[in-house]
From TrEMBL:
Heterotrimer of A, B and C subunits. Belongs to the GatB/GatE family. GatB subfamily. Residues 328-475 form the Asn/Gln amidotransferase domain. Pfam families: GatB_N, GatB_Yqey. It catalyses: L-glutamyl-tRNA(Gln) + L-glutamine + ATP + H2O = L-glutaminyl-tRNA(Gln) + L-glutamate + ADP + phosphate + H(+); L-aspartyl-tRNA(Asn) + L-glutamine + ATP + H2O = L-asparaginyl-tRNA(Asn) + L-glutamate + ADP + phosphate + 2 H(+). Allows the formation of correctly charged Asn-tRNA(Asn) or Gln-tRNA(Gln) through the transamidation of misacylated Asp-tRNA(Asn) or Glu-tRNA(Gln) in organisms which lack either or both of asparaginyl-tRNA or glutaminyl-tRNA synthetases. The reaction takes place in the presence of glutamine and ATP through an activated phospho-Asp-tRNA(Asn) or phospho-Glu-tRNA(Gln). This is Aspartyl/glutamyl-tRNA(Asn/Gln) amidotransferase subunit B. Keywords: ATP-binding, Ligase, Nucleotide-binding, Protein biosynthesis. The keyword Translocase does not apply. It comes from Lutispora saccharofermentans. Its EC number is 6.3.5.-. SUPFAM superfamilies: GatB/YqeY motif (SSF89095), Glutamine synthetase/guanido kinase (SSF55931). It comes from the Bacteria.
Length: 476
């Protein structure tokens, strides 16, 4: 039987405000445990929250960038549940009147644009963090630094039809939030977290199948792999006559499987009711318009501009605009350069390759944009071969030095003097008469051998294009 996969994502993004959602405690990652907390975020009786205006502003920014309707009136609610790291035993969130609703994101799937709906974006606070002991230490500790950190939850419509689409959606959403500079979106630090709902149904059926929820994927790769595993698991259960259980599962990266955490036969009753300690959020159109006018250039707009302004392919522009840091680095290199495509090739190739290998951010990159421009110029002017350029690039990455100095130090300056190349080629031809005869008898691969001998004779410094030309002229 053919099945159709249905996927919806719930994304939690921590906002990069200086202070927490409802108190003045610092909002920072990595501080000493329990140093950024106070009676408000620890839930002491009688401690009253106060709404951080910046949290509302950042949430509105996200809503506008994601084409949402912004509610002029919304409110906060108490979501009642108990976890050891949630000291109030309720979370301040939004329930029936979210700040933003009915948005969408465009993603490219197999070269075609697809619109994925966004049901809502609402504000809420984060819980603390449990630090579990070892098998020997039979206890857990609680760090309340994260308690009260502002979040936005972005809930998609169930519009995704494959794990690949889900990954593309999350990549696009992450990029937009980074461009807005409202979240650093570091999944490895938990500032961007993803829960996925997945079900399958027979092709053509309108009703949804029974879904499972996969909690807290912490990378794009984990999201796609977890969904692929669940997709196949659902199909196997149904094909064998079984029934899917509605449950919450987690992804076990080491084993490559999802593991059941708890069954979820019915929706949890969180007993929402309006937060009595916070006034409703009432916005003015004028303020929303001011935020809209101040929005930065977003990924889709930048991609189109890169194609028009720099003449690079749409594929290149799509890759180069995935993150704000990447797009800024490319533009700093390509602005005013005569060959932006060559710049694009180096950024998408060597720059991204070595940064992935070393697990670096752009702030850690020693290569300056102007030095990458100079490297490309040295190649195009014939001073440096493509092989030599890679050696120079590795040293630039390691030391941050300028390419011209490295070319001299490493002795990689390419020989492009025509008179010198002519004498070198003549010598190689005289020493390889059999290959000369082979070439003249129609064996075209003999030319490649002769080029190799010329490069060897020049100790790799000969200009290969010039060697090719002179070889053909002398063999004519």
């Amino acid at each position: 039987m053919n099945y159709e996969t249905i996927i919806g994502l719930e994304i939690h993004a921590e906002l990069s405000t200086k202070s927490k959602a409802f108190c003045s405690c610092k909002n920072e990652f990595g501080a000493e445990v329990n140093t950024n907390c106070c009676p408000v975020c620890m839930g002491y009786p009688g401690a009253l929250p106060v709404m951080n205006k910046k949290v509302v502003e950042y949430a509105v920014k996200a809503g506008l960038a994601l084409d949402c309707q912004i509610s002029l009136y919304s409110k906060t609610d108490r979501k009642n549940y108990f976890y050891p790291d949630l000291p109030k035993a309720y979370q301040i969130s939004q329930y029936d009147i979210p700040l933003c609703k009915n948005g969408k994101i465009q993603v490219q799937v197999d070269g075609e644009n697809k619109s994925i709906g966004i049901t809502r974006i609402h504000i809420e606070e984060d819980a603390g963090k449990l630090i579990h002991g070892t098998e020997v230490e039979d206890y857990s500790l609680v760090d309340f630094n994260r308690s009260g950190v502002p979040l936005i939850e972005i809930v998609s419509e169930p519009d995704m039809r494959s794990p690949v689409e889900a990954r593309l959606y999350l990549e696009k959403l992450k990029g937009i939030l980074e461009y807005l500079e409202i979240s650093d979106c570091k999944m490895q630090e938990g500032s961007l977290r993803c829960d996925a709902n997945i079900s399958i149904r027979p092709a053509g059926q309108k009703e949804f199948g029974i879904k499972t929820e996969i909690k807290n994927m912490n990378s794009m790769k984990a999201l796609q792999k977890a969904l692929e595993y669940e997709e196949e698991r659902h199909k196997k259960v149904l094909s064998e006559g079984g029934t899917i259980v509605q449950e919450t599962r987690r992804w076990d990266e080491a084993k490559g499987i999802t593991v059941s955490m708890r069954t979820k036969e019915q929706a949890h009753d969180y007993r929402y009711f309006p937060e009595p300690d916070l006034v409703p959020i009432v916005l003015e159109e004028k303020w929303i318009d001011e935020i809209r006018k101040a929005l930065p250039e977003l990924p889709d707009d930048k991609r189109r501009r890169f194609v028009e302004e720099y003449g690079i392919p749409d594929y290149d522009a799509s890759v180069l605009t995935l993150t704000k840091e990447l797009s800024d680095f490319f533009e700093a290199c390509a602005k005013g350069h005569k060959n932006p495509k060559a710049i694009s090739n180096w950024v998408m190739g060597e720059i991204l390759r070595i940064m992935k290998e070393k697990e670096l951010d752009f702030k850690d990159l020693k290569i300056k944009p102007e030095d990458l421009r100079k490297l490309v110029d040295l190649i195009e002017s014939g001073v440096l071969s493509s092989t030599g350029a890679k050696q120079v690039f590795e040293e630039m990455f390691r030391t941050g030095r300028e390419p011209e100095a490295l070319v001299e130090q490493l002795g990689l300056k390419q020989i492009s003097d025509e008179d010198v190349i002519v004498e070198l080629v003549k010598k190689v031809l005289s020493e390889n008469q059999k290959s000369v005869e082979d070439y003249k008898n129609g064996k075209s691969n003999a030319l490649g051998f002769l080029v190799g001998q010329c490069m060897k004779a020049s100790k790799g410094k000969g200009n290969p294009q010039l060697i090719n030309k002179i070889l053909k002229d002398l063999l004519a």
